[in-house]
Specification:
single chain, alpha/beta, Rossmann fold, 7-stranded mixed sheet, 9 helices
């Protein structure tokens, strides 16, 4: 059993959607908890931790959602991993991470000392996103990605060389494929210009998380995401292969000397 808690927002909510199912198909039992406040920044997470505020919508595999504080969630399970991330709109602005991330990391260490801390790298917005923060990046997806990647890498070093869950990398890799090259007629992996699309975007994220957490390649995973009321969103076999390989490439690129292994 692998237990992971995300201290996050809607982007971690997107990421956790299919983790349990993808993990199960790979032979890995994964329980994932998510502490959710929409758009929540590291500064606000630290403020909530400091005040022990029961401010989150807390979801966990197999359980009903309920209000919770960070400390309450940290102490509920013997978590193997705890993930932290910046709000997407601040993701490429390194000056917004500190001192809040370091304080939050110390807090996590205090109440879940056994857990490995991971940094969840979020993703750049779609090229035509109407998100009000997109102008801060010149409405340039590539620039936003470059800035957020550098900021998350720095954040990982700030808390002792933590590993990165490379969701943002996987998005950019998948976007290079004609099927998901939105600029040239492909599908968008976003549902509103910034959140992940309900099946394909979220599936890509789940593959990244499972491969990072369980060390099992996403390539060939048998789980197929679907929505009963929107069957047209079910990925085709070809799309599944592209998404699996994008996730695998992103994760392997973070493991020097292992690129190309499956």
């Amino acid at each position: 059993m692998i237990r992971v808690l995300a201290i996050g927002n809607s982007f971690s909510d997107d990421a956790r959607t299919f983790v349990h199912q993808i993990g199960k198909a790979a032979g890995a039992e994964i329980t994932i908890g998510n502490l959710y406040i929409g758009g929540c920044s590291l500064e606000r997470h630290w403020q909530n931790a400091r005040e022990d505020a029961k401010a989150y919508d807390y979801s966990k595999t197999g359980c009903e959602n309920r209000p919770a504080s960070i400390r309450e969630a940290l102490e509920e399970e013997a978590w193997d991993y705890v993930t932290m991330q910046q709000a997407s709109h601040f993701s490429g602005l390194p000056e917004t991470y500190q001192p809040y991330l370091n304080e939050l990391s110390a807090y996590v260490r205090r109440y879940a000392s056994q857990a490995e801390q991971l940094i969840h790298e979020t993703w750049a917005y779609e090229i035509d996103s109407a998100h009000p923060a997109f102008p801060d990046y010149g409405r340039d997806q590539a620039r936003m990605y470059e800035l957020l990647r550098a900021a998350y890498d720095r954040a990982a070093q700030d808390i002792g060389g933590a590993r990165v869950i490379p969701s943002g990398d996987a998005f950019q890799i998948a976007r290079r494929h004609p099927l998901f090259d939105y600029a040239h007629g492909g599908q968008s992996l976003n549902r509103d210009g910034f959140h992940a699309s309900l099946t394909k975007g979220r599936y890509l994220l789940g593959c990244v998380w499972v491969e990072t957490l369980a060390g099992v390649s996403a390539v060939g995973n048998a789980f197929v995401p679907s929505l009963p009321d929107q069957p047209e969103l079910t990925p085709s076999p070809e799309e599944l292969v592209v998404l699996q390989r994008a996730a695998h490439e992103a994760v392997m690129a973070r493991r020097p000397g292992e690129a190309g292994r499956q």
